[in-house]
Specification:
The structure is a homodimer. Chain A is an all-alpha fold. Chain A folds into two domains: 11-50, Arc Repressor Mutant, subunit A; 68-198, Tetracycline Repressor, domain 2, CATH 1.10.357.10. The first copy, chain A, is 62% helix and 0% strand. Chain A has ten helices and no strands. Chain A has helices at residues 11-25, 32-38, 53-65, 77-94, 99-103, 110-125, 130-149, 152-155, 161-164, 177-198. In chain A, α7 (130-149) runs antiparallel to α10 (177-198). Chain A is globular and about 60 Å long. At the A-B interface, α5, α6, α7, α8 and α10 of A face α6, α7, α8, α9 and α11 of B. Chain A binds a DNA duplex through residues 1-5, 7-9, 31-33, 41-45, 47-49, 52-54. Chains A, B: This is Transcriptional regulator, TetR family.
Chain lengths: 199, 199
DNA sequence: TGAGTTAACCTAACACTGTTCGGTTAGTCG
DNA sequence: CGACTAACCGAACAGTGTTAGGTTAACTCA
């Protein structure tokens, strides 16, 4: 059918359904044809609203990262770093399946850079040199992205019994989904606290 | 041509050529047909030596991670952590293009787990509780993998002039390849030092 | 009101991808 | 010498992202 009375597609709708598919089926579970199908449309029609799949993923990533809050440096820079990192982690852990895409970088996404720039500026204002500020901001990103991708929750989904005999030191309990989630959060908090304290 | 006098293929040769392609053309630059071509062979022939592409990538990842050294805890645990992290980073930064694949994790790769297990055991021996040891090991991995994937070198490869006006705080010099490499290393070292000191 | 343009969809196709099936033959073992 | 296996190849399948060209509804403007 040609041109419907009310448009079926819009960039926003495409992005939101695409993100839903990613959340549900993983990053590899998203194909343009499947996306089109769930939108009640043929695959080719998407390209009137989206330049390319990669661009679509980038847009989705940006919209996720735009939820990150870097205000909080009014108090002091340590607290600001911690808030910023928590906000980042919250954004990423809401949509963990998109993290592998972020790994393809460029970290040169607009939103990321804007936030990095603000972070950097706040650190400089707090008395760090430009170079130090850059490295501290980078270190914070290490913890954020590292925790997003090497998480216990998404890591070992198979049967705990497989591990317990081969790796005597590792605790089987880590592998239960509930415990893993909590452990992820606590590990992140510990790493963050240690990092900020150690500066 | 059928069965040649001396076999053209072996798992080792396949892995090494595949890794060379990944290093040269990126993770997406590796296809079974291209790999076969560079081995002087048809794509189907690979499947006599390799179960699947994913398995091949896993094997490559393992062989890279098996270069990681977790001995060094004889001295003290802080030094051990630092050495371990450096060794990890060295392994990953030699083949940065495979990092996106690792992001798809399961982190449940054999080699990773073995090393994590040893790390964990050493921390427990040093007096940390099992839970603390797990979280510390996780934190170390955050920094290692975070630095591997959100690096300045691989991040912004485009023209520095694009950035300098839009992001006033960021220093243009960060974007020059040479400086970026050095900055990556220093950022990693700073994050690592701060983390270990803060424990 | 009616003509022309544009916007939004479609079908069909292209060049890829990973993977499998069935062949063909060189080497090896009894 | 015969049977068998190991190692390759050609062709195909289902799936991928993406593009070209067509069809028609909705909008614009005289």
């Amino acid at each position: 059918m040609p041109r419907p009375s009310t448009p079926l597609l819009s960039p926003d709708r495409i992005r939101s359904v695409a993100l839903a598919i990613i959340d549900r089926d993983g990053l590899d579970g998203l194909s343009m044809r499947k996306l089109a199908a769930e939108l009640g449309v043929q695959a080719a029609s998407l390209y009137g609203h989206v330049r390319t799949k990669d661009q679509l993923l980038n847009d989705i990533a940006q919209s996720i990262l735009s939820a990150v809050d870097v205000s909080g440096f009014s108090v002091d820079w340590r607290e600001g770093l911690i808030r910023c990192a928590r906000s980042y982690r919250a954004a990423l852990s809401t949509h963990p399946n998109i993290v592998p895409f972020l790994a393809y970088g460029p970290a040169g996404r607009e939103e990321s850079l804007q936030r990095l720039d603000l972070l950097h500026g706040a650190l400089v204002d707090a008395g760090w040199s430009r170079r130090e500020a850059t490295m501290i901001a980078a270190g914070l990103m290490y913890i954020v992205f590292g925790s997003a991708l090497s998480s216990f929750s998404s890591g070992f989904s198979s049967d705990p019994a497989d591990y317990v005999d081969r790796y005597p030191h590792l605790d089987r309990a880590h592998l239960l989904p509930g415990v893993a989630r909590e452990l992820d959060r606590d590990s992140f908090e510990l790493a963050l606290a240690a990092f900020v304290r150690g500066l």
